[in-house]
């Protein structure tokens, strides 16, 4: 299948050049998935999908066009080339379009990252896992209902060929189990969830663990009080501390920098976090949920420090934004079949600190521990930050009563500088961070 797909893409690129293109690339994404939803003791839904999409991009001078198809018959592929060539002649010029620099393309064998698990998980097995997760949720004392449980299995393969010599392919898989719980009744009702996901089926947490965690999280939130307003330390649970890295990756995206729409616009090489803070992007992590062998333009990828000792080291660039900014590509191009290459991180994480989570909060007389964030009140241009939240009060260094319906506010530039990580980093998501403490945030409550 691999050779067949690569040969097909090579033929597309070759035929595009023969038809008048100056440069071209072609990408194929083959994917399949199945998922099961289980709710209140009954099978709610079974979904399955398969896709074999191909995208062709051609460049004539400084004009480019992209067209995609799921039809791999010879006549359809011939029409794909003709349509893409015609479109590329009709669109406006793009001064920065083009293939990635040839000297930055991946060469040699692909890394052994163990991203694909060939385990076949049937719909019946997924149903059993979802049932087990919900049963465990409903068994937790204090849980009054379930919002449902689910399990899924998927696999995919990415193939890319360019007219200047790159040809590459890799495949991956993903498995997950989730459960959502409801505790309490009426206006005192609370909800929470838990999930596990992994490249390999054997790396998943057990369905019963997922269900129990979801139920216990919901029960702990019962009786939530209102927060008083004021300035205080805010501590983020790892489930939500990773959101800081989402904000960072958006701010250092080459597109944002080129448009001059980032609050970190002029901060390259400057101290944006406290000394000692390190943030890594590692596309070559074994079994990593966001690992990749090469980027969306065929550029070689490598582990790199985005922030080192608190200092911003790099933007995330594809070839178009690198040209616009007069910089080198960084291996962060992403690619679909119907659009020009975008930009994305891989396995992005913040290195752990030295204090345990309990030590991190031990000296907090009055603060709040965040277990849920609501809304997206973040301004990527100014860094202004305001989000609804729920969690637990911190009193005299200990977690106290649950609290809800309050807002936390600040500015990301200041929040980054006053951020302290705990030692509990674990790799459960594509983006990961340990428990984080941020000083001097404004809390607006109703109490």
Automatic annotation (TrEMBL):
<dbReference type="InterPro" id="IPR036059">
    <property type="entry name" value="TldD/PmbA_sf"/>
</dbReference>
<dbReference type="Pfam" id="PF19289">
    <property type="entry name" value="PmbA_TldD_3rd"/>
</dbReference>
<dbReference type="Pfam" id="PF01523">
    <property type="entry name" value="PmbA_TldD_1st"/>
</dbReference>
<dbReference type="InterPro" id="IPR047657">
    <property type="entry name" value="PmbA"/>
</dbReference>
<dbReference type="GO" id="GO:0008237">
    <property type="term" value="F:metallopeptidase activity"/>
</dbReference>
<dbReference type="InterPro" id="IPR045570">
    <property type="entry name" value="Metalloprtase-TldD/E_cen_dom"/>
</dbReference>
<feature type="domain" description="Metalloprotease TldD/E central">
    <location>
        <begin position="117"/>
        <end position="222"/>
    </location>
</feature>
<feature type="domain" description="Metalloprotease TldD/E N-terminal">
    <location>
        <begin position="24"/>
        <end position="87"/>
    </location>
</feature>
<protein>
    <submittedName>
        <fullName>PmbA protein</fullName>
    </submittedName>
</protein>
<dbReference type="InterPro" id="IPR045569">
    <property type="entry name" value="Metalloprtase-TldD/E_C"/>
</dbReference>
<dbReference type="GO" id="GO:0006508">
    <property type="term" value="P:proteolysis"/>
</dbReference>
<comment type="similarity">
    <text>Belongs to the peptidase U62 family.</text>
</comment>
<feature type="domain" description="Metalloprotease TldD/E C-terminal">
    <location>
        <begin position="229"/>
        <end position="445"/>
    </location>
</feature>
<dbReference type="InterPro" id="IPR035068">
    <property type="entry name" value="TldD/PmbA_N"/>
</dbReference>
<dbReference type="GO" id="GO:0005829">
    <property type="term" value="C:cytosol"/>
</dbReference>
<dbReference type="InterPro" id="IPR002510">
    <property type="entry name" value="Metalloprtase-TldD/E_N"/>
</dbReference>
<dbReference type="Pfam" id="PF19290">
    <property type="entry name" value="PmbA_TldD_2nd"/>
</dbReference>
């Amino acid at each position: 299948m691999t050779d067949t797909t690569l040969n097909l893409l090579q033929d597309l690129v070759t035929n595009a050049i023969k038809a008048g293109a100056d440069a071209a690339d072609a990408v194929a994404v083959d994917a399949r998935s199945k998922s099961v939803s289980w709710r209140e003791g009954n099978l709610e839904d079974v979904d399955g999908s398969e896709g074999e999409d191909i995208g062709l991009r051609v460049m004539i001078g400084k004009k480019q066009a992209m067209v995609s198809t799921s039809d791999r018959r010879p006549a359809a592929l011939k029409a794909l080339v003709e349509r893409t060539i015609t479109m590329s002649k009709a669109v406006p010029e793009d001064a920065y379009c083009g293939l990635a620099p040839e000297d930055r393309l991946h060469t040699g064998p692909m890394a052994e990252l163990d991203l694909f698990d060939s385990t076949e998980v049937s719909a019946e097995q997924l149903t059993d896992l979802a049932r087990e997760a919900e049963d465990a949720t409903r068994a937790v004392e204090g849980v009054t209902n379930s919002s449902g449980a689910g399990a899924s299995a998927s696999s995919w393969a990415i193939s890319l060929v360019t007219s200047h010599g790159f040809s590459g392919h890799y495949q991956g898989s993903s498995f997950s189990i989730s459960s959502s719980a409801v505790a309490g009744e009426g206006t005192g009702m609370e909800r929470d969830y838990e999930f596990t996901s992994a490249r390999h089926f054997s790396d998943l947490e057990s369905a019963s663990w997922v269900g129990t965690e979801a139920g216990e999280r919901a029960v702990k939130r019962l009786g939530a009080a209102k927060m008083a307003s004021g300035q205080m330390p805010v501590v983020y649970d790892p489930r939500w501390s990773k959101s800081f890295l989402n904000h960072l990756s958006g701010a250092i995206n080459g597109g944002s920098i080129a448009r001059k729409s980032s609050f970190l616009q002029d901060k390259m090489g400057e101290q944006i976090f406290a000394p000692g803070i390190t943030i890594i992007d590692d596309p070559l992590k074994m079994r990593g949920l966001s690992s990749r062998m090469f980027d969306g333009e065929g550029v070689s990828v490598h582990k790199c420090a985005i922030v080192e000792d608190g200092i911003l080291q790099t933007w995330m660039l594809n070839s178009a934004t690198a040209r616009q900014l007069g910089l080198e590509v960084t291996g962060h191009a992403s690619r679909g079949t119907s659009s020009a290459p975008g930009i994305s991180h891989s396995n992005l994480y913040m290195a752990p600190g030295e204090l345990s989570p309990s030590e991190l909060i031990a000296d907090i007389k009055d603060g709040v521990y965040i277990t849920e964030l609501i809304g997206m009140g973040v301004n990527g241009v100014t860094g202004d930050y305001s989000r609804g939240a729920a969690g637990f009060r911190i009193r005299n260094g200990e977690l106290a009563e649950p609290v809800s319906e309050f807002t936390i506010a600040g500015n990301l530039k200041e929040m980054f500088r006053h951020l302290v990580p705990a030692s509990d980093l674990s790799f459960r998501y594509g983006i990961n961070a340990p428990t984080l403490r941020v000083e001097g945030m404004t809390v607006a409550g109703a109490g």
